[in-house]
TrEMBL record:
Domain annotation Glycoside hydrolase family 3 N-terminal: ranges: 68-379
Lineage, highest ranks first: Bacteria, Bacillati, Actinomycetota, Actinomycetes, Micromonosporales
InterPro entries named in the record: GH, Glyco_hydro_3_N, Glyco_hydro_3_N_sf, NagZ_Beta-hexosaminidase
Similarity comment: Belongs to the glycosyl hydrolase 3 family.
EC number(s) recorded for this UniProt protein: 3.2.1.52
A UniProt-annotated Pfam family: Glyco_hydro_3
Catalytic activity: Hydrolysis of terminal non-reducing N-acetyl-D-hexosamine residues in N-acetyl-beta-D-hexosaminides
Record key words, sorted: Glycosidase, Hydrolase
Top-level taxonomic group: Bacteria
Location of region: Disordered: 1-20
Protein's name according to its UniProt entry: beta-N-acetylhexosaminidase
Length: 539
């Protein structure tokens, strides 16, 4: 008797292949469902369903609803971005609220958001993004393992350590329910630097940056979080701030290809799920048009030349260059250029209605919208296939160890001794008043390393960081430490100059070990500092 034939899968069982499942889902979605899938706004409130009066007022103003869950339901959203505002964040102007506190709260929030998304006709996972670059742009800080800034990673110059650290970061983000991290920054700094990018970049060497970007992408995505390369086609050779104006990329086409393109190319080849378009005027390709709205850049270059097949997301649509047009028109223009998702539209209803009106008038072809949503759903189904880690991985000893190795490799001596204790006798740590936390962190780390620390009268160790000026230096300091771009050290008179490029706890712990003579400083500055070598010690 022949063996019974295997039972066929139920007709209601979705295909296992993410692309096939996406195509099947898109085929049954209405225009309203499709329009909602390309929107990724922010919302007010630290819970999907329970928010205070202030958050209700914010959500009503933004979307005519009370809660984030209601926003998802009303607009059939494809994604949501988690935001926070801090005073020293150069991207803070686009983040008018904070909806993240600590890992436990974030996981509860994201679980509630996903529950709301499951009720939609698409029944697809929600894309939950955040800007967790580390360094000065870090949304979730409490209780997580903080990586050093990108410029510190560039100083370490060890992609193997980069990949391990970003894998740790990815596990923590995945545990909190984040599915896409708007990182790494793939911008290469010009010699003049870009003030809005600064230490968010790996440095001025495009080839070295390419290695770091590829490593970060591999680390993140191996943990089940999509990486997002930004800000395409490159924000590092600009002087303007795209939050306020349309910065120009003025290099020749050959120079742009040599100086800006390699890290994006590397990230795409490493399999990055997302590329973020910048509000940037690449004059050699499409002069006068922000890349976000340029078909030549977002389709001809990104898709045609770089062969990128993932999801293209705009930079925040509430930034000045994107508000040149009403929200609905801007949405259609961005989609027609080749973007698949619209980040933080200033008016969610107007953006959605503009897309629907574009479909009706023919200014937006339905095929273009279907293409965008198919890419979005494919990425979301693929990301969701990785099981969510337990919250216990956040801040774990294993993750701390991986990141601490990267921090230790980044510490740089630009002037001073290369071995043994860098100061003798007791020390006194000073810093501008805004750096109280970093000062206290270093004091404890020095004490743990066996260095005597006293409130006054010891050899002065001066900490300076992001936004500080020459006036913030101390002329009498025995040691000056820069916790951001090291350029300020050119003005320092101290016999010993060090860079951590970062003020995280693990960076300052690594610094303490060098000061105590228990570790050497293998890092080399990824940018030139006037009158100083890249390192006084590392060859």
């Amino acid at each position: 008797m022949p063996a019974p034939a295997p039972e066929s899968a139920s007709a209601s069982t979705p295909p296992a292949d993410p692309a096939a499942r996406a195509a099947e889902t898109v085929a049954r979605l209405s225009d309203e469902d499709l329009a909602g899938q390309v929107l990724i706004p922010y919302a007010y409130g630290g819970s999907a369903t329970q928010v205070d009066a202030g958050a209700i007022a914010g959500n009503r103003s933004l979307a005519g609803v009370d809660t984030p869950a209601q926003m998802i339901a009303k607009y059939r959203l494809g994604g949501l971005i988690l935001v926070s505002f801090t005073q020293q964040d150069p991207t803070g102007k686009t983040n008018p609220t904070s909806n993240v506190e600590d890992p436990k709260q974030v996981r509860a929030l994201t679980a509630g958001l996903q529950e709301a998304a499951r009720q939609l006709p698409a029944a697809a996972p929600l894309m939950i993004g955040t800007d967790q670059e580390y360094g000065i742009v870090t949304r979730i800080t409490d209780g997580v393992t903080l990586l050093p800034s990108a410029i510190a990673v560039g100083a370490a110059a060890q992609p193997v350590l980069t990949e391990a650290a970003w894998h740790a970061a990815g596990r923590e983000l995945a545990a909190m329910g984040v599915t896409v991290d708007f990182a790494p920054v793939a911008d290469t700094l010009g010699v003049a630097g870009s003030s809005v990018i600064g230490s968010r970049s790996y440095g001025t060497d495009a080839k070295a940056n390419a290695g770091q970007v590829g490593a970060a992408v591999r680390g993140l995505q191996a943990a089940g979080v999509s990486a997002a390369l930004k800000h395409f086609p490159g924000h590092g050779h600009t002087t303007g701030d795209s939050h306020e104006e349309l910065p120009a990329i003025k290099q020749s086409l050959a120079a742009w290809k040599a100086q800006d393109l390699p890290p994006f190319q590397s990230g795409v080849q490493a399999g990055a799920g997302v590329v973020m378009s910048g509000h940037l005027d690449l004059q050699a390709v499409d002069k006068g048009t922000a890349a976000t709205f340029s078909h030549k850049i977002m389709t001809d270059v990104l898709r045609g030349q770089l062969k990128f097949t993932g999801v293209a997301i705009t930079d925040a649509m509430n930034m000045a260059p994107a508000k040149k047009w009403p929200a609905g028109e801007a949405a259609v223009r961005a989609l027609n250029a080749g973007n698949d998702m619209l980040l933080m539209p200033p008016d969610i209803g107007a953006a959605r209605d503009g897309i629907l009106a574009g479909l009706k008038s023919g200014s937006l072809k339905r095929e273009r919208l279907v293409e965008a949503v198919t890419r979005i759903l494919t990425l979301k189904f693929r990301t969701a296939a990785t099981p969510q880690p337990e919250l216990s991985v956040v801040g774990s000893a294993e993750n701390q160890q991986a990141v601490a190795a990267l921090d230790a490799a980044s510490i740089t001596v630009l002037r001073g001794r290369c071995s043994g204790p860098l100061v003798t006798g007791p020390v006194t740590v000073t810093a501008p008043s805004s750096r109280g936390l970093a000062r206290a962190t270093l004091v404890k780390a020095l004490q743990d390393a066996g260095v005597a620390v006293q409130a006054a009268g010891g050899a002065e160790i001066r900490l300076v960081g992001y936004g500080d000026k020459p006036v913030d230096l101390s002329p009498d300091a025995a040691v000056t430490v820069m916790m951001d771009l090291p350029g300020l050290l050119a003005y320092a008179k101290s016999p010993t100059l060090l860079a951590t490029y970062s003020s995280s706890k693990l960076s300052l712990t690594a610094l303490a070990a060098v000061i105590a003579g228990k570790a050497t400083a293998p890092g080399k500055s990824p940018i030139a500092v006037a009158g100083l070598p890249r390192s006084a010690c590392a060859k």
